[in-house]
Amino acid sequence: MHNKYLAWLAAGLMAGALSAQAAPLTPAGASAASSSEAMPYSGFTDYTVDVSGIFSVDGPGDPDNETRSLQIGSSARVVGIGWDTTQFADSPSWLSEMVVRFGSTSGWAVNLTTGIGVDFPGTQSFSSGGVVDLVSLGLAFFVDADGVLALEFFESFDDFPNDWDGRWLQGALTIRVEGEHVVPEPSVYALLLFGLAGVAGSARRRARVRG
Ligand SMILES: [Ca+2]
Ligand SMILES: [Ca+2]
Fold it and tell me: DSSP class of residue 5?
């Protein structure tokens, strides 16, 4: 029963860690919400963002904050996010105040608070234990035609204005993007092998003629 409670608690924490961005930067956020319908997806590509050494500085949108951007393909859909990180919050700042948000050029879509509920300073590791499905959470979103996925690391409460409150010591975020990962059918592999054999054969013949 004790273990059951812990499992429930862990599930609750994980579900609470990812949330829709409360204040989209632009009205485009409204149309993004309707496009994140629970459509199933088949192929996907995982992108990894190394967070080692990233400082968690000020409130959202502050120019001192660290940002990252990825090229994930024109109008691609982000369908999952995973994390495996070790983070430090400098007292009196809390681990639960370290947030990374994800979005497109036209607006922010999803907030991730890895240390949700950890309302104290210090060093701690957090893991999602795999990639969390954003589609089932209603949080999947599309990037714009420019293919840019934007990330911003910020503090939900700024204890040290214009200075860092915490640091992502090590680890990585995984971003799962729909499509692109096309696995050829077995018959295509066979054709490719025959094709390669043919090329090798003609090369050998040519070499013999030249010799
Ligand atoms: Ca803080
Ligand atoms: Ca600060």
Answer: H
**Distance from residue 71's CA to the centre of ligand 2 (Å):** 29
The domain in which residue 126 lies consists of 2-180
* Of residues 112, 124, 152, the one with CA closest to residue 20: 112
Q: Are 166 and 100 in contact (CB under 8 A)?
A: no
Distance 3 CA to ligand 1 centre (A): 32
Same-domain check for residues 204 and 144: no
Domain count, the chain: 2
List, for residues 25-41, the tens digit of each pLDDT value: 333 333 333 344 455 67
pLDDT in tens, 85-99: 999 999 999 999 999
Q: pTM, whole model, 2 decimals? A: 0.72
